[in-house]
Design brief:
Blueprint (H helix, E strand, L loop, with lengths): L2 E3 L1 H9 L4 H7 L2 E4 H8 L5 H8 L5 E4 L14 H13 L3 E3 L3 H9 L4 E2 L1 H10 L5 H7 L9 H11 L4
Parallel strand pairs: 1-4, 2-3, 4-5
Length: 160
Amino acid sequence: MIVVADASPICYLLLIEHVDLLQRLFGQVVIPQAMHDELSAEGAPTIVQTWIAHPPRWLQIQYATTTPDAALGRLHLGEREAITLAGQLKADLIVLDEKAARRVAVECGLYTTGLLGILDEAATRRLIDLPTAIERLPRTTFRASPRLLKALLDRHQGIP
């Protein structure tokens, strides 16, 4: 399975102490060089900078070798490169949180998920305690509607 990830889901997973889910769910994850640069940037949280300075073996950093599609022009550089790289690699999945980027990725024929999709899948496989993971989200800048979070928690309520 080829999985390409954008920076924000990686950041949030690091901040809620669940970045290992990427490896546990997918084995290997690819990020474009622009994502590496974004995660290394001075404004990134220290935990993120430290992590990307010594990336795990399951994280591959690659350059997107094709020119991004003009439809990607309204997205940030990292999102453009992630979508371009996912198309180039014929990825099975791209992990994005930004609504506009997900919409463009779907238009490009890519299957998408985001942070909550990863947490949902991890809870389904019993890899995490979902309520604890959700409780950690307010410590970050991640935003989701309370109704969406409640629906996710309700779906997993009572699952051993």
